[in-house]
Design brief:
Blueprint lengths: L1 H18 L2 H17 L3 H4 L1 H8 L16 H12 L6 H10 L2 H26 L2 E2 L5 E2 L2 H8 L3 H39 L3 H16 L2 H30 L4 H12 L5 E2 L7 E2 L1 H16 L5 H6 L7 H30 L5 E2 L4 E2 L2 H10 L3 E2 L2 E2 L1 H32 L5 H17 L3 H24 L1 H28 L1
Antiparallel strand pairs: 1-2, 3-4, 5-6, 7-8
Helix pairs in contact: 1-19, 2-7, 2-13, 2-19, 4-15, 5-11, 5-15, 5-17, 6-13, 6-16, 7-12, 7-13, 7-15, 8-9, 9-10, 9-17, 9-18, 9-19, 10-17, 10-18, 11-15, 11-17, 12-15, 15-16, 16-17, 17-18
Length: 483
C-alpha cells in the first residue's frame, strides 16, 4: 500500500507539473491578451472607474437590480477565496526560484488577467439563473450552458467545469488551507493541530451553514481587515529597509528582461534569467489571482446589480487588489530585506516559502532579541487561509448544485465541507494537494474556451455599456457645474 501511494504521488506530481506548465500558462495569459485587444483595452482604461466604484458607498448597498448580496460583498467574498497563502508563500517561492524579476512578470500577467477576470465575471452575471430557493446561481458552468449555441457542448463543458470545481474546493479550497493554518500555528506557537482543527471546523461550520448571505457578511469584514493589516505591516518593514529599496526595484526590472542568468547584490546566491523569471512570475501570479480559472465568477453571479458589465468591472478589481497590491507588498518586502538568496540556519538551505517572508519581516520586526516576524506571518496566513475556506465553499457549493441540478442537497455539501476542515488540519496529505491542484488547473480549460467562444457577445455588451458610461459621466459633470 505504501509503495502504491508513493508511486501515485509521483504520477500526480508529474501530471501537476504538466497541467501547470508552459502550455497552460500560455493559454491563460494568451486568452487575457486576446480579450484585452478584443475589448479595445477597456478593462485597463476603466480601471480607475472600477476602483472608484468599488470603494463607493453605493457598492455596499444592494441598490437597483436583482441579486442576493451587495456588489462590494460579491467582490470581498470572491477575494476571500483569492487572497490566500499564495500571496505570502507563493510570492516568496517565485522570488526564490525566479529571482526578483519574477515580480515584474507577475505584474504583467495581472494586467492581462484584469481582462480575463472582467470577462468571466461579466458573462456569469449575464447568464445566471434563479434556483428553486429563489437564490441567484451562476458561474462559468451556467455561462456555457446558457450562452453556447450548441447546447450539448455547452452542457458538457459546464458539467466538467463544475466537477473540477467541486474537487478543487475540497483540496485547494479546504484541506490545504486548514493544513497551512494548523502547521503555522504549531510551528510558531506550538498549538496542537487537533485543537486548531476543532476551532476552525466549528468556526467554518457556524458561518458556512448560514449560506452566501452570512459568508458575504463575514467576508466584507474579514477581507478588508486582513488585507489592510498585512499591507500596513509590510509597508512598515519596507520603510525600515528603505535604503535597499531602490536597488531592490532596480534588480526586479533588470533581471526580468535579462537573457543571461544574473544575480548578486540583494539576490545573494540566486541567479536567474528572463525565462526563469517569466515562468515563476506568471505561474505564481495566475495561481494567486485565479484570473482565467473561473472561480471568482461563481460569486460574482450572486451580486445585486442593474448591469452585468458594471458588476464585471467591480469584480475585475479583485486581480488588482490581490496581485498589484498584496503580492507587491510581499515582493518589495523580500527584495529590500537583504535575506533573499541567503541560507536559513535552521535548515542549511536557501530561505524560501513562508520562512523567507518571515525572515524578511524579522529584519525590522525584532524587538529585544524577540523576532515578531513569525507572529505576523502566522496571523496573516491564518486569516488568509480561513477566508479562502469560506470563499471556496461557496464556489464548490454552487458547482455541486449544478451537478445535481437542485439546491436541496447543498446542506449536505456544507456539512461535509466543514468536517473536512478538521481532516486537513490534522493530516498532511501531499497527494491531495497534487490532485486538487490538477483539478484547479483543469477548471481553466472549459472556462477559457467559453470566453473565447463568447468573445463577440462579450464585446458587444461592453461597447454598449461604454456609451452608457459616457452618458453617466456627462450627467455627473453637469451636476457638478450646477452645484
Amino acid at each position: 500500500m505504501g509503495n502504491f501511494v508513493t508511486e501515485l504521488g509521483k504520477v500526480l506530481e508529474t501530471v501537476d507539473s504538466f497541467v501547470w506548465g508552459p502550455v497552460m500558462l500560455v493559454l491563460l495569459v494568451g486568452t487575457g491578451i486576446f480579450l484585452t485587444f478584443r475589448l479595445k483595452f477597456l478593462p485597463w482604461r476603466n480601471l480607475g472607474y472600477a476602483l472608484k466604484l468599488t470603494l463607493s458607498k453605493e457598492s455596499r448597498k444592494k441598490g437597483k437590480g436583482t441579486g442576493d448580496i451587495s456588489p462590494f460583498s460579491a467582490l470581498t467574498t470572491a477575494l476571500a477565496a483569492t487572497i490566500g497563502t499564495g500571496n505570502i508563500i507563493g510570492v516568496a517561492t517565485a522570488l526564490a526560484s525566479g529571482g526578483p524579476g519574477a515580480m515584474v512578470w507577475m505584474w504583467i500577467s495581472a494586467c492581462f488577467g484584469l481582462s480575463s477576470k472582467f470577462s468571466e465575471c461579466m458573462l456569469a452575471l449575464k447568464y445566471r439563473e434563479v434556483n428553486d430557493h429563489g437564490e441567484m446561481t451562476g458561474g462559468p458552468m451556467y455561462t456555457m450552458k446558457n450562452g453556447f449555441k450548441n447546447k450539448k457542448i455547452g452542457s458538457l463543458l459546464g458539467w466538467l467545469f463544475a466537477l473540477f470545481t467541486v474537487i478543487a474546493s475540497f483540496g485547494i479550497g479546504n484541506l490545504t488551507q486548514s493544513n497551512s493554518i494548523a502547521d503555522t500555528l504549531k510551528t510558531t506557537f506550538n498549538v496542537s493541530t487537533v485543537l486548531t482543527g476543532i476551532i476552525i471546523t466549528v468556526l467554518a461550520l457556524s458561518i458556512i451553514l448560514g449560506g452566501i448571505k452570512i459568508i458575504s457578511k463575514v467576508s466584507q469584514v474579514v477581507v478588508p481587515f486582513m488585507a489592510i493589516f498585512y499591507v500596513v505591516c509590510g509597508l512598515i518593514a519596507i520603510v525600515g529597509n528603505y535604503k535597499n529599496l531602490p536597488e531592490g526595484i532596480s534588480m526586479m526590472f533588470s533581471m526580468a528582461f535579462s537573457v543571461k542568468a544574473v544575480g548578486g547584490g540583494l539576490c545573494g546566491t540566486i541567479t536567474a534569467s528572463m525565462m526563469q523569471a517569466l515562468r515563476f512570475g506568471v505561474a505564481r501570479g495566475v495561481f494567486s489571482n485565479e484570473a482565467g480559472l473561473g472561480s471568482a465568477a461563481v460569486t460574482a453571479a450572486a451580486a445585486k446589480t442593474d448591469n452585468h458589465v458594471r458588476q464585471g468591472y467591480i469584480n475585475m478589481t479583485g486581480t488588482f487588489w490581490d496581485t498589484i497590491v498584496v503580492c507587491t507588498i510581499t515582493g518589495l518586502l523580500i527584495c529590500s530585506s537583504g535575506v533573499l538568496g541567503t541560507i536559513n540556519p535552521s535548515t542549511g538551505e536557501l530561505y524560501t516559502g513562508a520562512a523567507l517572508t518571515i525572515a524578511a519581516f524579522n529584519t525590522v520586526f525584532t524587538f529585544g532579541g524577540v523576532e515578531v516576524g513569525g507572529w505576523l506571518v502566522t496571523l496573516g496566513i491564518s486569516l488568509f487561509a480561513f477566508s479562502t475556506i469560506l470563499g471556496w465553499e461557496y464556489h464548490g457549493e454552487k458547482a455541486f448544485e449544478y451537478l445535481f441540478q437542485s439546491p436541496k442537497y447543498n446542506i449536505i455539501y456544507r456539512i461535509i465541507f466543514s468536517l473536512v476542515v478538521f481532516v486537513g488540519a490534522t493530516t498532511s496529505l501531499k497527494i491531495v494537494w497534487s490532485f486538487s491542484d490538477i483539478a484547479n488547473a483543469l477548471m481553466a480549460i472549459p472556462n477559457l474556451i467559453s470566453m473565447l467562444v463568447l468573445s463577440n457577445a462579450l464585446a458587444k455588451d461592453v461597447f454598449e455599456f461604454q456609451e452608457i458610461l459616457k452618458a453617466e459621466k456627462k450627467s455627473d459633470n453637469k451636476k457638478q457645474m450646477v452645484a
